[in-house]
Write a structure and sequence with these properties.
Elements: H1 2-26, H2 30-42, E1 49-53, H3 59-66, E2 71-76, H4 79-88, E3 93-98, E4 111-117, H5 126-136, E5 137-148, H6 154-176, H7 179-195, H8 198-204, E6 209-215, E7 220-226
Parallel strand pairs: 1-2, 1-4, 2-3, 4-5
Antiparallel strand pairs: 5-7, 6-7
Helix pairs in contact: 1-4, 1-6, 2-3, 6-7
């Protein structure tokens, strides 16, 4: 547990100041579309109370603000990421907290929405993280997860793997000066895709309704899980 937590923290602290630039560059700008689309599917309003887990530098929070939310809290393990979040998002009526997803310091049933964009792979215990989401959400609240996945199309999968395994580490390492960080990304996506079924884990911790969407030729998945108004786990 501590080994993965420390590894993830060190990686993201080290690349924080190049993170936004590389996200946009390496995704060809699609990262903005993925966040915007996922939040539109979620249906945020001015009454939403949003917790953005693994918030990074705040791009989800910025998009959520554009879509009407104003009460936003960012949570991340990386101190450097949170500092950039505060610098970019000081106009948000909220705060940032340095914490792991599995044990967050908030009261139960505080938030109407929880988001996590490309961060679930980095949890040291995904089921515990999802259980934490369930407890912190109000009845009827939604957890929205954006995560990479391997595309189903065989030809596109080969191209995707080539890019992820060969091109991305070189470009990411060149600009960030940390090749290890951008080697970790494709490795973690592959392991995650082979071992984890997000929808099943969400159901196991109690979420009753789960919607699933596939974006950009299947390389990104969006799942929106609803906490039952009756608080019945399945």
């Amino acid at each position: 547990m501590n080994e993965k937590k420390n590894k993830v923290k060190n990686i993201f602290d080290s690349i924080a100041f190049k993170y936004d630039f590389l996200n946009h560059l390496l995704s060809f700008g699609f990262d903005k579309y993925w966040r915007r689309k996922a939040l539109k599917l979620t249906g945020l309003t001015s009454d939403s109370i949003l917790l953005d887990v693994a918030c990074g530098t705040g791009d989800v929070a910025i998009e959520a603000k554009k879509q009407g939310a104003s009460k936003i809290v960012g949570a991340d393990l990386s101190h450097n990421m949170l500092q950039l979040f505060k610098d970019k998002s000081d106009w948000i009526d909220g705060s940032v907290v340095q914490t792991v997803a599995e044990n967050m310091p908030f009261k139960y049933e505080t938030f109407s929405n929880i988001t996590v964009a490309f961060g679930v792979r980095n949890f040291y215990n995904i089921e515990e993280g999802f259980a934490s989401f369930y407890n912190l959400l109000k009845h009827g609240g939604k957890a929205t997860i954006i995560e990479f996945q391997l595309p189903k199309n065989k030809i596109f999968k080969r191209l995707y793997r080539f890019y992820f395994n060969k091109i991305l580490p070189i470009v990411g390492g060149l600009f960030s000066k940390n090749k290890t960080a951008y080697t970790y990304l494709p490795q973690s996506v592959k392991e995650f895709d082979e071992q984890i079924v997000i929808s099943r884990l969400l159901k196991e911790v109690g979420f009753s309704k789960i919607e699933s969407y596939s974006l950009t030729f299947g390389i990104v998945q969006v799942l929106i899980a609803v906490k039952s108004s009756f608080n019945l786990k399945v």
